[in-house]
Amino acid sequence: MQSVKTKKSLITGIVLLGISVFLTIGVKLIFHACVHEDGSKGSCFWAEQAVQAAGILLILECLILVFAKERSAQRALSLVICGTGIVTALLPQVFISLCMMPSMRCNALMRPCTIACSAALVIGGILNLFLNRRTQTS
Fold it and tell me: Distance between CA 98 and CA 105 in Å, rounded?
């Protein structure tokens, strides 16, 4: 089969990769969870760890998307990125409880930033799915 990767699809893949890298690094350095004074690790720490693990998975998915040439592979990877993005958005607070106080760093910063990055990944995945919707013609 011939290579059918479009320039728009490549750009979308690179943007998705950038968002995934930002999420993975950002959750540790910029919008990390609460730091307890006594050094203990609360559930928000484990939510941060889970988001970072999901971010690593998203990086791998986006790398494969960038190098995938066939439309069918790009569509499948776009769906996988959307699914992983949805799960990532649900990790803090839905799957792993955060601190009870809304003013805590995990609720005020980590959760909204994770949701924003995940939403951008889902939207980008849907966009890439739309860009690769046409069937191949011989």
Answer: 10
CB 58 within 8 A of CB 20: yes
Question: Counting every residue, how long is the chain?
Answer: 138
Asked if 51 contacts 23 with a C-beta cutoff of 8 angstroms, the reply is: yes
- Which range of 27-31, 53-57, 73-77 scores highest in mean pLDDT? It is 53-57
Closest-CA residue to 65 (of 127, 23, 1, 136): 127
Residue 16 one-letter amino acid: L
Can you say whether the dihedral through the CA atoms of 60, 48, 102, 83 is positive or negative? positive
Whether the Cβ atoms of residue 58 and residue 81 lie closer than 8 Å to each other = yes
Q: Give me the residues paired with residue 96 across strands.
A: 92
Instruction: Dump pLDDT digits (tens) for 79-101.
Output: 999 999 999 999 998 888 888 88
Q: Say whether 40 sits in a helix, a strand or coil.
A: coil
